[in-house]
């Protein structure tokens, strides 16, 4: 089997990875024991690089085309897929061993995926401000330009308010975990939703100041550091 190719985003952090959307296919590929290589792209070059390989664009708020990462290229089938959720869906259909959408759960997990993002969305100012700090100067400038179309500037100065909003979101998620018995969001059954939750936590751990990550780790009895560690272990990434 030829290694699949995952396009991920560069940062100035050791080991590069930080971005939650490319992290999701990385976790899926590793969970499913599929061989893959990672090609790293500067945030400011994503559109040029993804257009040049023939990836499919999506739309920005203003209607213009945007090419995003992650993109997955599978030389075994010729597939070239954009969007983390579509990549997960493709990998599940093409490589069904070790399911990530068990018991036909893909429709429910798709719905949960956007609900989960809704819990984090209120705190995006602080998260975007921290993300810009770990990019190269050119990518940080580009990132601030495009992301401020969704979340208007200024991004700093509201840290306390954002922390409260983020904690509220995680309290809601914690309540959902209390409805099941096992360590996963679907009880004893591991799924893509666990990967979605973990990849967001990984983003926080990578971009935030150490004391800020410690703060999140302390919420809900240390639940979130534990979830990240459990999912990384399950996906053989720890
Ligand atoms: N829904 C997409 C979102 C991907 C996305 O927005 N990627 C960002 C980086 S995390 C991107 O490539 N942005 C490029 C740009 O805005 O120019 C997914 O899940 O893959």
UniProtKB/TrEMBL annotation:
Q: Which Gene3D superfamilies match?
A: 1.20.1050.10, Glutaredoxin (3.40.30.10)
Q: Which InterPro entries match?
A: Glutathione-S-Trfase_C_sf (IPR036282), Glutathione_S-Trfase_N (IPR004045), GST_UstS-like_C (IPR054416), Thioredoxin-like_sf (IPR036249)
* Entry superkingdom: Eukaryota
Q: Which residues form the GST N-terminal domain?
A: 9-99
Tell me the organism: Suillus subaureus
Q: Which Pfam families match?
A: GST_C_7, GST_N_3
Name recorded for this polypeptide: GST N-terminal domain-containing protein
């Amino acid at each position: 089997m030829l290694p699949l190719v995952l396009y991920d985003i560069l940062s100035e952090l050791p080991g590069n990875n930080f971005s939650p959307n490319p992290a999701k296919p990385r976790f899926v590929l590793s969970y499913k024991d599929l061989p893959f290589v990672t090609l790293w792209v500067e945030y400011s070059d994503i559109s040029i690089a993804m257009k040049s390989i023939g990836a499919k664009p999506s739309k920005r708020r203003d209607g213009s085309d945007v090419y995003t990462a992650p993109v997955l290229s599978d030389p075994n089938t010729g597939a070239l897929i954009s969007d983390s959720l579509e990549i997960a869906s493709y990998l599940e259909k093409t490589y069904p061993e070790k399911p990530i959408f068990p018991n036909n759960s893909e429709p429910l997990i798709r719905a949960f995926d956007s609900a989960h993002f809704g819990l984090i969305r209120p705190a995006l100012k602080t998260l975007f401000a921290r993300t810009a700090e770990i990019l190269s100067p050119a990518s940080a400038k580009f990132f601030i330009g495009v992301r401020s179309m969704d979340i208007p500037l200024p991004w700093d100065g509201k840290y306390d308010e954002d922390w409260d909003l983020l904690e509220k979101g995680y309290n809601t998620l914690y309540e959902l975990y209390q409805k099941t018995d096992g360590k996963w969001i679907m009880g004893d059954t591991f799924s893509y939703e666990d990967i979605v939750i973990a990849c967001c936590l990984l983003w926080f751990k990578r971009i935030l100041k150490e004391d800020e990550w410690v703060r999140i780790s302390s919420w809900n009895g240390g639940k979130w550091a534990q979830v990240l560690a459990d999912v990384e272990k399950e996906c053989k990434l720890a």
